[in-house]
């Protein structure tokens, strides 16, 4: 029997929770599941929040900072989500958030996730991306009254950790599955390995329902402009509109297994509904080089990439992950999960979206979406 958590009574208007205006208000509080998402203002957080709201969840998002500009975008997109302040660097704020929200499920998506930045701010990356996982797990453990001598009961909080294919790094086998050894190549990858093993350890030490999704690269029109897919789709749109002539990129030979972020958040939710907690590789099973990505994106706009793309040593990383490709068969067999959107469709979707975005924003708006990252 798949897991069906029972609902605690809703507790609206508790201190510290900033309730956003609702798109449609449900006055009755049904026996819905309640989810707390860290990193809700990011790409994955926004898709996951939408997915969970559509499934009838009550969704809470942890937001940090005083005037986080991303909150405005989230407000526009998702009125149903309630925001609560907290920070992965602040243990007390996480305990307070879990105590107030009383979630059935916690999704830890918050991280410093841009790989090059992890060399520039390695310590901060370790604090947020690595130790942040410990703090969220501890908040759940403390609020649930779990200890070495006291196991969680049946209504325990379920925890999802956003692990990553960057943990595989320099691979000896391809495709990569749940048993492939890790050899991370960046401070980011190392921090994620810590979070991954810690999640496993809390499962084994305390019997907590704590799982990791080892997600391969997942993209969308909501992707940050610093990541290569969005940098390329924005660059193509800028060139097509005549705002730019060149796009400067780093290593074109690296290969990634790129999927659509909207597909991947479905897997996150499915992972928390299984009888037995387990980790899963999530990817498409198909890999493409950065050069192929570039070629596909430029052709989608009727352009020839050789006329515009310049390779620039400034974008080469101190240590590269050359090639990643997922073996998602466990997720397919046990979760029934499959991606719906393929590579070509994804790239076309992103190019179209950026062309529309920049057409509407005009020349000056294009500056907001700079592709000068790292
Ligand atoms: N960002 C970027 N910018 N990457 C470039 C560029 C460039 O100008 N030129 C070439 N690349 C190459 C990188 O060297 C890398 O091999 C590849 O494009 C993908 O880079 P990113 O899009 O930055 O993603 P990533 O693979 O390093 O990491 C992303 O995916 C991981 C999942 O495997 C991030 O989202 C991570 O947070 C995530 O864990």
Rg, Cα atoms, Å: 21 Å
The tally of helices reads 11
Series of H and E elements: EEHEHEHEHHEHEEHEEEHEEHEHH
Give the overall silhouette: globular
On the 0-100 scale, what is the average pLDDT? 90
Structural class by sheet pairing and helices:
alpha/beta
**Quick one: biggest sheet?**
8 strands, mixed
Given as residue ranges, the uncertain stretches (5+ residues, pLDDT < 50) are: 1-16, 18-30
Structure description:
This protein has 374 residues and is an alpha/beta fold. It has 11 helices and 14 strands. The termini are far apart. The strands form 4 sheets. It has an 8-stranded mixed sheet, sandwiched between helices. Strands 8-11 form a two-stranded parallel ribbon. A two-stranded parallel sheet has the order 9-14. Helix 5 packs parallel to helix 6 (187-206), helix 7 packs across helix 11 and helix 9 (290-300) packs across helix 11. Bound molecules: guanosine-5'-diphosphate-alpha-D-mannose. Guanosine-5'-diphosphate-alpha-D-mannose binds at residues 113, 115, 164-166, 216-217, 226-228, 231, 249-251, 254, 256, 290, 315, 317, 320-321, 373.
């Amino acid at each position: 029997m798949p897991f069906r958590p029972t609902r605690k009574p809703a507790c609206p208007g508790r201190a510290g929770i900033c309730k956003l205006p609702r798109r449609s208000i449900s006055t009755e509080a049904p026996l819905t599941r309640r989810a707390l998402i860290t990193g809700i203002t990011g790409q994955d957080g926004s898709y996951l929040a939408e997915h969970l709201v559509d499934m009838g969840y009550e969704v809470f998002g942890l937001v940090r900072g005083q005037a986080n500009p991303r909150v405005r975008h989230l407000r526009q997109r998702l009125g149903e989500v309630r925001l609560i302040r907290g920070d992965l660097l602040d243990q007390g704020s996480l305990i307070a958030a879990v105590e107030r929200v009383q979630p059935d499920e916690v999704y830890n998506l918050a991280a410093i996730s841009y790989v090059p930045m992890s060399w520039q701010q390695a310590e901060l990356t370790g604090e947020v991306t690595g130790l942040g996982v410990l703090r969220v797990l501890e908040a759940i453990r403390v609020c649930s009254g779990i200890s070495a001598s006291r196991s969680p009961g049946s209504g325990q909080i379920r925890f999802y950790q956003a692990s990553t294919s960057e943990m595989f790094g320099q691979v000896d086998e391809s495709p990569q599955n749940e048993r492939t050894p890790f050899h991370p190549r960046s401070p980011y990858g190392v921090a994620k390995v810590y979070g991954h093993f810690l999640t496993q350890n809390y499962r084994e030490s305390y019997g907590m329902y704590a799982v990791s999704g080892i997600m391969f690269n997942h993209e969308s029109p909501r992707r940050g402009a610093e990541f290569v897919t969005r940098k390329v789709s924005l660059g193509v749109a800028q060139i097509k509109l005549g705002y730019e002539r060149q796009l400067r990129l780093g290593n074109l030979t690296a290969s990634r297994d790129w999927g659509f972020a909207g597909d991947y958040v479905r897997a996150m939710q499915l992972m928390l509904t299984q009888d037995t907690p387990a980790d899963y590789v999530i990817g498409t099973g198909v890999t493409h080089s950065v050069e192929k990505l570039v070629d596909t994106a430029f052709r989608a706009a009727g352009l020839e990439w050789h006329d515009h793309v310049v390779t620039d040593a400034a974008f080469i990383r101190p240590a590269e992950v050359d090639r990643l490709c997922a073996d998602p068969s466990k997720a397919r067999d046990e979760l029934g999960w499959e991606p719906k959107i393929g590579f070509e469709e994804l790239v076309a979707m992103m190019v179209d979206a950026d062309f529309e975005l920049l057409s509407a924003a005009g020349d000056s708006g294009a500056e907001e979406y700079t592709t000068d990252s790292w």
